[in-house]
Amino acid sequence: MLKTYRYRLVPSCKQQAALQHTLDLCRNLYNCALEQRRMQRTTPVAQMREVTELKKEFTDYQGVHVHVLQNVIKKLDRSFENFFRRVKAGQKPGFPRFKGKDRFDSFAFNNTGFSLAGKYLQISKIGAIKLRLSRPLPKDSTIKSLIVRRSSNNWYACLVADYTPQTLPASELCVGLDLGIENFAALSDGSFIPNPRIYEKAQAELRRAQRRVARRKKGSHRRKRAVELLRKVHERIANRRLDILHKESTKLIQKYGTIVVEALNVKGLAQGFLAKQVQDTSWARFIQLLSYKAEEAGRRLVKVDCSYTSQTCPECGVIKKKSLSNREHNCECGCRMRRDTAAAKIILGRIAPLGENVGAFSPCVA
Ligand SMILES: [Zn+2]
What we know:
- This protein is of the alpha+beta class.
- It folds into two domains: 2-162, no CATH class; 174-198 and 237-354, Nucleotidyltransferase, domain 5 (2-Layer Sandwich).
- It is 45% helix and 21% strand.
- It has a seven-stranded antiparallel β-sheet. A five-stranded mixed β-sheet has the order 10-9-8-11-12, sandwiched between helices.
- Helix 1 (13-39) packs across helix 4 (66-88), helix 2 runs antiparallel to helix 4 (66-88) and helix 6 crosses helix 9.
- The radius of gyration is 25 Å and the shape is globular.
- The two termini are 35 Å apart.
- Zinc ion is lined by residues 313, 315-316, 318, 331, 333, 335.
């Protein structure tokens, strides 16, 4: 199983300059290769071959590992592939564009050109950079590739490790999850995962940072600094959110053998009237985390059809329309409970007829 581990790099000033220089050269190559593909008929294979000649001709490029340069060509080719795929699908994508300084933030190594030794990451042509080994790599893992990434003013090393996951002891427990806005999730056992509302809480901070940018003169150094601060606020929000998603998904995986969720059309929902809240709760990311953690631990994540989950009674199965504002489930059969708990029970109940449809995604809006 492949998994990416991200560590913060602590480069010296000299190393930082070297990293930035490499990034600039890669960006330059990307833009030149894009220009070439726009102007003449060429293939990524031919461009890759030219990389060797480029290294001979320009001394600057001799200071960059050949795989890094080839990966730039691959990156460009991927953006062309995506472009053509979307054209074929009848969408109207933007043509691959030239990358400005802020739009190119990583370069990649294949399995050579770097090595990890204790607290240091030896990167070819750059040197041994200290890194914060915040968590150990899994035992007996082999590192497949390295991506060096800049984010705001920090540098990160993303190591892609291949390893055999340790499965958790089997659990007979099953749970249904109803993802919502009032609560992040309602569990079929009647408990809840509260909505952290991180974006809402950070909004004042965010607004202040945005205002600071808006007030400063375009092109000025002060504005640049304000933009940097705004970016940091965004990053902090994203980190906080991801942290909670990780903690909650891990808790669920450790306790339950089978987790049943509804196959949501999050993209459709996020465009609707509840867009901001839906983005904030990041259901899609949560399901993604659950799904890889389940695979790793040998647990089961099942996605079921989500139609009428909140309208059906878990006791008698009668469908009764409820408006969105109606938070209680009150059925004639005497079944009374919270609306989302009822939905979670329905979701759990749907596992039986549908069986193991892991990964099946049926689009739905409800
Ligand atoms: Zn009922």
